Amino acid sequence: MEQYAIHGGQPLIGEVEIGGAKNAALAILAAAIMTDDVVTIENVPDVRDTKVMLEAIESIGGRVEHIDRHTVKIDASKINDFIVDGEAVKKIRASYYFLGALLGKKNKACVVLPGGCNIGQRPIDMHLKGFRALGAKNEIIGNGRVETVAEKLTGAHIYMDVVTVGATMNVMMAAVLAEGKTIIENAAKEPHIVDLANFLNSMGAKVKGAGTDVIRITGVESLHGSTYAIIPDQIEAGTYMMAAAITNGNVTVKNVIPRHLESISAKLSEIGCKVIESDDSVQVIGTSQLTRTHIKTLPYPGFPTDMQPQMAVALALSDGTSIVTESIFENRFKYVGELLKMGADINVQGNSAIIEGVSCFKPAPVVAPDLRAGAALVLAALAADGFSTVEDIRFIERGYEDFPEKLRALGGNISKVDSEEELNRFKFRVVS
Ligand code: UD1
User: Of 1, 208, 302, 377, whose CB has the highest number of CB atoms within 10 Å?
Assistant: First the structure.
């Protein structure tokens, strides 16, 4: 079974190039099918989730041409189906973006219910409320499919009861091809919302206010082709920044937008790391003793829920008691049991984790419970002096391109192994 074998204990030092934002790419790839012209998307991260999105586009009749590892050309002129189905699609949450994209393009969409990381209930009621306001009828049909159909889409005033990234993007997509004006209030403000709006505008849409909590859209009749580069991944960057803190290393993340990383940089400074920002890079220099602090996850520009497990790993090595409060998803502490195996002292009470810092982790075999927690466990294993393994790395591969390779370039002793023999070879190589 594929797993990461890790011999930890060395500080991570060096530079790492950050790829395109996964969560922006997933929405943008779906939105690319909304025009009949050819669209070229650059800086697409080569991770499992984006591959599934591209396969889904092909499965409904779209043409996907890989120009290079991170550039795809999409021709959706021959899309002949409005049903996005299949086992792979079911496993990724972002498949729901085909609802908004196809509803906008064809006034009809049918998509298998979203999967993704099991970090809580993750309803889609706000997506459906938005579609309904635009004139669609939604139905949950057999085999976990959601269908949304409209005779005609008409702009509407939509208030989101909760701040949701997914629903804001999905409704934005449908609304750009609706007749008249749409206002989305209490919209999410994440960098990928702005990226999707910029992409849609590059295709001729009229979206204003993305990045604030009121988005105003004037519907257009059709969208045209475009060439667009996706923004750098805030969470991939944050993960490597946290790696410097956790291993007392010195890591420069390159090709980033430092403004998107402010909440992460601020917390790293608070726990004693030195953070040096330049135009498109951020350097994090660790410290031999991290300082305790508290964090609460919040919608952007607050501290991202997708950085919560990595931050908790850093706090587990701090000098006192820290409290991590998760306010976005209700089931995001599943990694705690694994961290306890590594000697962490964490007690979960409701949506808070009370962390008593320990001086070091001990190596252990652990299992990734989801994407970001999986990455956090890898960082913990890289800090633990000795041999650890991380299983269920398929979660991690959903969102991190070349994770072991990039960590190795920073001096991490990590390898992906696929058999007992490979595992032993790695162990032996380390010992010898
Ligand atoms: C996206 C990201 C995920 C990130 C999350 C929050 C993708 C593919 N995933 O997930 O990595 O952790 O944003 O930054 O981009 N909610 C409702 N009703 C809805 C939709 C959401 O109540 O219709 C709730 C959710 O249960 C959650 C909160 O709103 O409590 C935020 O969810 P949302 O922002 O929609 O997250 P996702 O889009 O699922």
Answer: 377
Task: Give the DSSP letter string of 147-209.
Answer: EEE-SS-B--EEE-SS--HHHHHHHHHHHHTSBSEEEEES----HHHHHHHHHHHHTT-EEE-
Q: What distance in angstroms lies between residue 22's CA and the mean position of ligand 1's atoms?
A: 14
C-beta neighbour count of 401 within 10 angstroms: 21
Residue span of the structural domain in which 54 resides: 22-229
| Rounded average pLDDT over 14-18 | 98
Residue with the smallest CA separation from ligand 1 atom 39 is: 166
- The verdict on 210 and 248 lying in the same domain is no
What is the per-residue pLDDT across 233-291, written as a single tens digit (0 to 9) for each? 999 999 999 999 999 999 999 999 999 999 999 999 999 999 999 999 999 999 999 99
Asked which of 57-66, 78-87, 154-163, 248-257 is least confident by mean pLDDT, the reply is: 78-87
Cβ 147 under 6 angstroms from ligand 1: no
Q: How high is the pLDDT of residue 112?
A: 87
Pocket perturbation via mutation, ligand 1, pick of 29, 47, 164, 235 by most ligand atoms within 8 A of CB:
164
Answer yes or no: is the C-beta of 143 below 6 A from any ligand 1 atom: no
Nearest CA to ligand 1 atom 22: 123
Instruction: Say yes or no: 272 and 169 in one domain.
Output: no
Residue 58 has what pLDDT? 94
Domain stops at, among 207, 229, 251: 229
pLDDT band at 89 (very low <50, low <70, confident <90, very high): confident
Ligand 1, atom 21, lies closest to the CA of 164
In short, whether 328's Cβ falls inside 6 Å of ligand 1 is: yes
How many angstroms separate the alpha carbon of residue 193 from the centre of ligand 1? Answer: 12
- Classify strands 63-68 and 71-75 as parallel, antiparallel or unpaired: antiparallel
Work out how many domains the chain is built from and give that number: 2
Q: Which domain CATH number covers 268?
A: 3.65.10.10
Residue 200 CA to its chain's centroid (Å): 20
Q: Please tell me if the CB atom of residue 125 comes closer than 6 angstroms to any atom of ligand 1.
A: yes
Cβ 196 under 6 angstroms from ligand 1: no
**Greatest Cα-to-Cα distance within the chain, rounded to the nearest angstrom:** 70
